[in-house]
Design goal:
alpha/beta; Rossmann fold; 6 helices; RNA-binding; tRNA-binding; 20% strand; Pept_tRNA_hydro_sf
Amino acid sequence: MDTWLVIGLGNPGPKYAGNRHNVGAMVAAELVARHGGGSFKAHKARASVCELRLGMGPGGVPGPRCVVAVPSSYMNESGGPVSALLKFYSVDVERLIVVHDELDIPAGVIRLKRGGGEGGHNGLRSITKSVGTKDYLRVRVGIGRPPGRMDPADYVLRDFSATERRELPFVLGDAADAVESLVSLGLVDTQQRFHAR
């Protein structure tokens, strides 16, 4: 059974841990936490990784092998670690899933797609450049637009508001469900399930 690589994007260190821009890394942590027994380990590709089985196969058998990883580089240098992990685990780019924050989607809404533009997202831009294609799967976690005239760059590097933090466990759970559904059921079925909400 072919391996999947699931990348949760974020910036390293406690200063950024609660930022909106780190929601991808939070989803990766949720996936590892719900499959108890695993934990992140440092990898030479400049990332923290955990190998586990995600989703459910026919008859309730455990789903495919997945490497869940969070690059330990800054967001705008995510491509190097992603490219190195694809090579190390011999994962085809068709089985790369990148989980990231998305300004153009309302807060808390999950959307999925393969390919498309980067929408000014430096993490996606770096990955596309390093892997040589835009044609990878994305789980886009909506964070909404900044209020008033706030610069989007400042907005993404701020922590979630108190109201957003109350909803955050549900949002992270939905995004983790979307990743598991992608590896079990594929893109179209997962889009139908999540985009109908």
